[in-house]
């Protein structure tokens, strides 16, 4: 009798978990539980849709949530740029350079070229620290000033440089470093 009770409880628990799982439809039209990477991709697409065309200055929390989701748990450094129009609405988010666990190479010429191709008026610079520390290094500060000067030559403003580390996002502009 106990065996039946436990097996029915196990079945009930399995049904309960399946009922609360997110489902995706495959090409044959059948529904199945979503895998973790599918859930993360859907969340990133939702955040990107909220960020794209939004007024960045009135909603920095949405931008930080988006950056946290995109870069927070990567095992390697990524340098990205958020392109903004004249009203500081998001045109696009572009991951431009990929590095190692502790550094990435960034080429100002490529950042300016990409800004011109997208007709950007302003930029938000972003990179992650897989180490988990959001403190900016001297190299981060130097890179920010170099990119700010290079972009200014073509009338593009650098508004901020965000550093993402796990669940934390640090704004260099808030610290007076931009």
Short note summarizing the structure:
The protein has helices spanning 2-20, 36-51, 60-71, 108-117, 138-152, and strands at 23-25, 31-33, 78-84, 90-98, 122-128, 157-165, 168-171.
Instruction: Tell me the series of helices and strands, N- to C-terminal.
Output: HEEHHEEHEHEE
Remind me, CATH topology of one domain? Cytidine Deaminase, domain 2
Tell me the β content: 15-25%
Give the averaged pLDDT, no decimals: 82
Number of helices: 5
Low-pLDDT ranges:
5-9
Report the span from N to C terminus. Answer: 71 Å
Structure description:
There is one protein chain. Helix content is 40%, strand content 24%. The chain is an alpha+beta fold. It has a domain at 56-171: 3-Layer(aba) Sandwich (Cytidine Deaminase, domain 2). The strands form 2 sheets. A 5-stranded mixed sheet has the order 4-3-5-6-7, with helices on both faces. α2 packs antiparallel against α3 (60-71).
């Amino acid at each position: 009798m106990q065996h039946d009770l436990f097996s029915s409880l196990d079945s009930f628990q399995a049904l309960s978990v399946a009922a609360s799982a997110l489902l995706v439809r495959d090409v044959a039209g059948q529904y199945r539980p979503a895998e973790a990477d599918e859930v993360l991709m859907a969340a990133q697409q939702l955040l990107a849709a909220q960020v794209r065309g939004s007024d960045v200055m009135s909603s920095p929390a949405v931008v930080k949530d988006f950056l946290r989701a995109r870069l927070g748990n990567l095992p390697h450094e990524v340098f990205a740029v958020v392109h903004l129009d004249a009203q500081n609405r998001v045109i696009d988010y572009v991951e431009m350079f990929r590095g190692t666990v502790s550094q990435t190479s960034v080429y100002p010429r490529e950042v300016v070229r990409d800004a011109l191709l997208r007709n950007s008026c302003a930029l938000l610079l972003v990179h992650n620290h897989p180490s988990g520390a959001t403190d900016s290094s001297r190299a981060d500060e130097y890179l920010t000033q170099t990119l700010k000067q290079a972009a200014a030559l073509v009338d593009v403003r650098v508004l901020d440089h965000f550093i993402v580390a796990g669940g934390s996002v640090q704004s260099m502009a808030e610290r007076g470093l931009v």
